[in-house]
Amino acid sequence: MSDGLDSLAVRFHHENELHLAASVVTIGAFDGVHRGHQELIWQTVGRAQQLSVPSVVYTFDTPPKVFFGEAEALIPLTEKLDRISAFLPDHIIVARFDLGYARRTAADFVTELASLNPKLLIVGEDFRFGSCKGGNVSLLQRHFDTFTVPPVRCSQGQIVSSSRIRSLRRSGFTAAAAALEGWSSALFNPKELPMLARSVDS
């Protein structure tokens, strides 16, 4: 990837560029990299460290809902990549989401994932992919060892989601929205990763 985003800690790639002998992968739009997204990424990096394989975060530019005009982006791409990079994954794949990408079938996506040889995929329970959202967790489980992370909930029991953060922002509740995003304090301690990863052990 030639966008000047590479750093010593994290390597950046476009779709279909990265090929690995083994990996642990998480996938998502990660718009806002909120507390729910953070859990997926923590689990991925921690489990990869346990297995001594590279960790991969696969995301999109632009987020699909934003591309189709269903939502506004919570943060720009550069800020999203900075936030993901704070977790120190080995690789971040930024798929260029356009009409051509949107037409890709679920089978096309599975083929691309196979080039990463994932020992484990970590996704949210409602993860969908491919044209017309034709792929789901059940399809992934036919091809890869797949672990689903349940939704993260706030103290009132409501699910932390990008949609909820947008709604809070529109209503003027910026502090509540920021709390769900979870970037107002220092949350990151790499020494905690092995502990967090134990929750995905079989």
Give a structural overview.
- This protein is α/β, with parallel strands linked by helices and 202 residues long.
- Helices cover 36% and strands 16% of the residues.
- The chain has a six-stranded parallel beta sheet, with helices on both faces.
- α7 (162-170) packs antiparallel against α8 (174-181).
- Mean pLDDT is 87; it is low at 2-7 and 186-202.
Outline of the structure:
With about 200 residues, the protein is α/β, with parallel strands linked by helices.
Structural class: alpha/beta
Biggest β-sheet: count, sense, barrel? Answer: 6 strands, parallel
List the helices and strands in order. Answer: EEHEHHEHHEHEHHH
| CA-CA gap between termini | 35 Å
Strands of the widest sheet, in order across it, are 1-4-3-2-5-6
List keywords for this structure.
202 residues, alpha/beta, six-stranded parallel β-sheet, disordered N terminus, disordered C terminus
SSE topology:
Blueprint: E1 11-13, E2 23-27, H1 35-51, E3 55-61, H2 64-67, H3 77-85, E4 91-96, H4 99-102, H5 106-114, E5 118-124, H6 137-143, E6 146-149, H7 162-170, H8 174-181, H9 193-197
Helix pairs in contact: 7-8
